[in-house]
TrEMBL record:
Annotated SH3b domain residues: 32-96
Organism: Sphingomonas yantingensis
SMART domains assigned to the protein according to its UniProt record, in alphabetical order: SH3b
InterPro entries found in the cross-reference section: DUF1058, SH3-like_bac-type
Protein name as it appears in the record: SH3-like domain-containing protein
C-alpha cells in the first residue's frame, strides 16, 4: 500500500519538473514574438503587477497578441488593434493564431492565388495557424481550414516560415 503514495509523488515530481521547464523556456524567449490569449477572461493591466489597474478585459481565447517586452512573469503585449499593456504569462499560450484583417480573406486549398477557394473568412475572424511559408499560412477556423496570404493576417510576419 505504500507504493501507491510513492508512485503518485514521483509522477507529481515529474509533472512539476515538466511545467518548470516550460515556464523557464518561456522566460528566456526574446521579444518580439507572437503568442495568443489562453484564458477565457484575461485582464490587460497598465503595468507589470496586479496592483496596476486593468485597462482591458479580453473575453476572446485564441486572440493573437505580440509580446514586446518581458518583466519577470509579466508580458507587455500588443493586440491586433495596437493597444499595449501587461498580462501575466499564465494567461498566454504559445499556440499560434492569426486575426483576419483588411477585408474578407479567401481560404484556398493550396498556397496559390489561383487555387480553389474553399472558405471565406470575414475581418476579425481568428484561426489557428499550423504552418506558413513563402507568404502563405494554413489556418483552421473551428474545423474549416485553408491557405491564406500572410499579408491578410495579423499574428504572423509576412515573410515568416512556420512549421
Amino acid at each position: 500500500m505504500q507504493r501507491v503514495p510513492r508512485l503518485t509523488a514521483g509522477i507529481a515530481a515529474v509533472a512539476i519538473a515538466a511545467v518548470g521547464m516550460t515556464a523557464l523556456e518561456a522566460q528566456t524567449r526574446k521579444p518580439p514574438y507572437f503568442a495568443s490569449i489562453a484564458a477565457a477572461k484575461a485582464r490587460m493591466r497598465t503595468g507589470p503587477g496586479r496592483n496596476y489597474p486593468a485597462s482591458w478585459l479580453y473575453v476572446r481565447p485564441d486572440l493573437p497578441i505580440k509580446v514586446v517586452d518581458i518583466y519577470r512573469d509579466w508580458r507587455k503585449v500588443e493586440d491586433p488593434g495596437g493597444t499595449q499593456g501587461w498580462m501575466q504569462v499564465g494567461l498566454l499560450s504559445d499556440t499560434r493564431t492569426a486575426f483576419v484583417q483588411n477585408g474578407v480573406a479567401p481560404l484556398r486549398d493550396s498556397p496559390s492565388a489561383s487555387a480553389r477557394v474553399v472558405w471565406r473568412a470575414a475581418p476579425g475572424v481568428v484561426g489557428r495557424v499550423s504552418r506558413c511559408a513563402r507568404g502563405w499560412c494554413y489556418i483552421d477556423v473551428k474545423g474549416r481550414g485553408g491557405f491564406v496570404e500572410a499579408a491578410s493576417l495579423w499574428g504572423v510576419a509576412p515573410d515568416e516560415d512556420l512549421d
